[in-house]
Structure formats: structure tokens, C-alpha cells
């Protein structure tokens, strides 16, 4: 399909849907496969699937990749392996709905990092949008009671998701300076680096005696994570960042809680509370205001 016919909004909305499914898969995997083993299985199969298609492009891009190999490996270690390992660990302690809403803090992390590091200018509507997003995430993390934030009395899973958000926000900002190589080359190098790091995490989990081999449900969840959130969504996300920039692209992660809440209720049967609804309204309002602000500033 010609590049001009692929709308960035469609690309990034698809990413959000697939990542929402990842939260549900992570929750379904809890108790059926250990989180570090799930991360390893995910990146083993993702790397294996992409390798035959990517190698010709890797060879062609090698002169560009080689001097940036450490940098690209760090991107894979942080944005792929570490984020997913913490993400799946969090799924053992909190709900899929909470996980997806808490991911909406990523645009705020990206905004702050871009402002501090690159002095990226933002419109007042963008700031208001980020503020609404933060309020929605705070309500979810506090389970509707903001007093728990003041007392730092957080669910372990919610606290882990805050850490995961910091990891992926940093990864998104770092994509700004990625080398100009074929997207398959990019995915292959990041996936391969993630596979190596995942091996280390799985080895630590095994040494601690926490490894749980997958049953049928765990294997099915692992298969989903290897194909859809890993290869397809990550590739589309990189393309989306190229099309409209990291600040605007990251805002579409705010659709993850919307899709995630619906999937969690329908597939898992989780209960949707009033504070979840308020949080969803905040993040949807946030993405609308911030996107209008971004377009207004460009105009």
C-alpha cells in the first residue's frame, strides 16, 4: 500500500487495540506461566518469526546498524524486554483494566522528557490534555481514593506499572534519534537484544525457584503476545512515531484503556467501577485536547 494512503491515526489506533489485548493476555497468563518465562517465550518466537524476513534488510543496513548497535540493543532491553517483564509481573497483582489505564501516563513521561532534553514546545491545550490524562491515571492507580497516593499505599501491581510506564516512555523518547534503517531491520535488532535480556531475566527467575511452565492457557497467551503486541504492534508504533512524532504518537496509547476495559469486561469478566469510567473520560478528553493543541501549534 502506498505510504500516503496509510493514515497515522489508523496505524496508532491499531497499536492501541493490540496492546490492550496484551494486557488481557498478561492477566490470563497469570498463574499459568511465570512472567519472566512469558517474556522469554514472547521474544523468542517474535525474533524467530521476523528473522527470515529481516535478515536481507539487516545485511543492507549493517553499515548503519553497526556503529549504533549498543544504542539499539539498549532500546530493545528497555522498551521491549524490561517493559514487558515488569508488565507481566504487574498482571499478577492488579487488574487488566488498571494496567491499561495506567499505561496512559506514558504521554506525560514523553512530554516531560522531550521538554527537558530537547526543549520541545507545546501548546496550552496539550498541557491541559496531559493534565487530564494524569488525573485519570492517578484515579485508577489510587482505586478511586486519591488519599492512597498521598500515603503511598499502592497496590504492588499498580506500583510496578508506574515503573513500566517510565521504561517505555524513555524508549519512546529515544526513538527520536534512531538510525534511518528499514523497519524490519529495526524490529529484528530490538527483538534480538530483547531475547538476550529476557534469557537473563528467566534465568534469575529459575534460580529463585519461581519458574512456572505453561499450561494450555499460558501457552495460548504467550502465542498471542509473540505475534500481535510484539511484531505487529511494535512495528506499527515505530511507523507511527515516524509519521507524526513521539509526542503526538504516544497520545494514542490513551486508547489502550478504552479497548482494554472493554476486552477485560467481555473476556475476563472484570468489574468496571465508577472511578474507571471517570478515568476513561479523563484520558479520552486528554487525548482530544492534546491532539487539537498539537495540530493548532503546527497550523
UniProtKB/TrEMBL annotation:
Localization in the cell: Cell membrane
Annotated keywords: Cell membrane, Membrane, Transmembrane, Transmembrane helix
Keyword Phosphoprotein: no
Pfam families xref list: EamA
Topological category with respect to the lipid bilayer: Multi-pass membrane protein
TM ranges: 41-58, 70-90, 96-118, 125-144, 159-176, 183-204, 216-237, 249-268, 274-290
InterPro entries attached to this UniProt entry: Diverse_Substrate_Transporter, EamA_dom, EmrE-like
Cell membrane keyword on record: yes
EamA domain: residues covered: 9-141, 156-289
Name this protein carries in UniProt: DMT family transporter
Lineage: Bacteria, Pseudomonadati, Pseudomonadota, Alphaproteobacteria, Hyphomicrobiales
Amino acid at each position: 500500500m502506498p505510504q500516503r494512503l496509510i493514515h497515522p491515526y489508523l496505524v496508532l489506533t491499531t497499536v492501541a487495540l493490540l496492546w490492550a489485548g496484551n494486557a488481557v493476555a498478561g492477566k490470563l497468563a497469570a498463574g499459568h506461566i511465570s512472567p519472566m518465562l512469558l517474556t522469554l517465550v514472547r521474544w523468542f518466537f517474535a525474533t524467530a518469526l521476523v528473522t527470515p524476513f529481516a535478515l536481507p534488510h539487516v545485511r543492507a543496513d549493517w553499515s548503519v546498524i553497526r556503529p549504533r548497535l549498543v544504542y539499539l540493543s539498549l532500546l530493545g532491553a528497555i522498551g521491549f524486554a524490561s517493559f514487558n517483564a515488569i508488565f507481566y509481573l504487574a498482571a499478577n497483582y492488579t487488574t487488566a483494566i488498571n494496567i491499561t489505564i495506567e499505561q496512559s501516563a506514558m504521554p506525560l513521561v514523553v512530554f516531560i522528557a522531550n521538554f527537558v532534553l530537547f526543549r520541545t514546545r507545546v501548546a496550552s491545550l496539550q498541557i491541559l490534555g496531559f493534565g487530564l490524562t494524569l488525573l485519570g491515571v492517578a484515579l485508577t492507580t489510587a482505586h478511586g481514593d486519591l488519599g492512597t497516593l498521598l500515603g503511598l499505599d499502592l497496590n504492588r501491581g499498580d506500583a510496578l506499572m508506574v515503573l513500566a510506564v517510565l521504561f517505555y516512555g524513555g524508549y519512546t523518547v529515544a526513538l527520536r534519534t534512531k538510525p534511518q534503517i528499514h523497519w524490519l531491520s529495526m524490529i529484528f535488532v530490538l527483538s534480538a537484544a530483547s531475547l538476550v535480556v529476557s534469557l537473563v531475566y528467566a534465568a534469575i527467575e529459575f534460580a529463585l525457584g519461581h519458574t512456572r511452565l505453561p499450561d494450555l492457557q499460558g501457552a495460548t497467551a504467550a502465542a498471542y503476545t509473540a505475534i500481535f503486541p510484539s511484531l505487529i504492534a511494535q512495528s506499527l508504533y515505530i511507523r507511527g512515531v515516524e509519521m507524526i512524532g513521539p509526542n503526538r504518537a504516544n497520545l494514542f496509547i490513551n486508547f489502550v484503556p478504552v479497548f482494554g476495559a472493554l476486552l477485560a469486561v467481555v473476556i475476563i469478566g472484570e468489574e468496571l467501577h465508577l472511578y474507571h469510567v471517570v478515568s476513561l473520560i479523563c484520558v479520552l478528553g486528554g487525548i482530544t485536547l492534546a491532539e487539537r493543541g498539537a495540530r493548532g501549534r503546527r497550523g
